[in-house]
């Protein structure tokens, strides 16, 4: 009887343990955990899509440049050259990952990783559709500028660690140009922040849905932001940091293989990032004109982003490269006064439209 009672007690304890184990598992799988898993999946999908689009954009640019300049683009690998990007990727993967013996190996390797990571993380605050976005931060604009500032360190790391005078000069040019034009990017967006009263990207998009798109009331801010965006991404005609005639490809002259590939693809990812920001901040985000077909939110966002990407490529095909001193003079003598005037006028209009007694 004693042994039977002991066995019965052990069975009861085992059942209690199994129930508690199952209960703890169910307790662990909370709505917060589900939200975290969904956020991670969204982040992975967005990052993979951005990297793939950045790689494809190099092929699209070469085809468009060939079309606009009345010459052949890549047309040998696959039908209409469609597999050229695959050939380029294979070549990049299998090239020797060479590090110069005179370089600082740790910082030399870290630079392209920082450059690529800063660009990819910046996409986290861009709302693609009403329900699709990685992070909904109240300081979304500030987060973008923080990541943009981080990319300056990557450029300086690359130029200094290469121990090459051309790379160092290119990194100094790039950092000075980026820091200068980021000032005007921030000032150009302050007019939007003054009107909306928020740094949140979704709030900015929803404000435009209820009012005019900011391309109309903030036209001068848009012009300055677009010019600064081209300069920050070091795209033609603001590609002086890597001018082949002067600096032999600038701060990534010593890079090869996948390290160089990260800088190369990162440039196109930067184009996509600035284009997506222009759409979000000045062209209503995922909203169509006059609220046409609101169910096609992703279509409208992608269409408007593609338009600005094509505009980036068109600038390369049509505008000559100015001197570096002209680029810097243009920034401080034209962009700075324009952004300050735009901000002052916007602040004055908002203040005049504010009811008396509501100003704290």
Automatic annotation (TrEMBL):
Major localisation: membrane
Subunit and partners: NDH-1 is composed of 13 different subunits. Subunits NuoA, H, J, K, L, M, N constitute the membrane sector of the complex.
Keyword set, alphabetical order: Cell membrane, Membrane, NAD, Quinone, Translocase, Transmembrane, Transmembrane helix, Ubiquinone
MF (Gene Ontology): NADH dehydrogenase activity; oxidoreductase activity, acting on NAD(P)H, quinone or similar compound as acceptor; quinone binding
Physiological role: NDH-1 shuttles electrons from NADH, via FMN and iron-sulfur (Fe-S) centers, to quinones in the respiratory chain. The immediate electron acceptor for the enzyme in this species is believed to be ubiquinone. Couples the redox reaction to proton translocation (for every two electrons transferred, four hydrogen ions are translocated across the cytoplasmic membrane), and thus conserves the redox energy in a proton gradient. This subunit may bind ubiquinone.
PROSITE patterns per UniProt: COMPLEX1_ND1_1, COMPLEX1_ND1_2
Subcellular location: Cell membrane; Membrane
EC number: 7.1.1.-
Alphabetical list of InterPro entries matching this protein: NADH_UbQ_OxRdtase_su1/FPO (IPR001694), NADH_UbQ_OxRdtase_su1_CS (IPR018086)
Name of this protein: NADH-quinone oxidoreductase subunit H
Organism: Pseudomonas savastanoi (Pseudomonas syringae pv. savastanoi)
Membrane topology: Multi-pass membrane protein
One cellular-component annotation, GO: plasma membrane
Membrane spanning stretches: 36-57, 106-128, 140-160, 181-200, 212-232, 268-286, 292-314, 334-352
Reactions mediated catalytically: a quinone + NADH + 5 H(+)(in) = a quinol + NAD(+) + 4 H(+)(out)
Pfam families (alphabetical): NADHdh
Family as reported in the entry's similarity comment: Belongs to the complex I subunit 1 family.
Any GO BP annotation: aerobic respiration
EC top class named in words: translocase
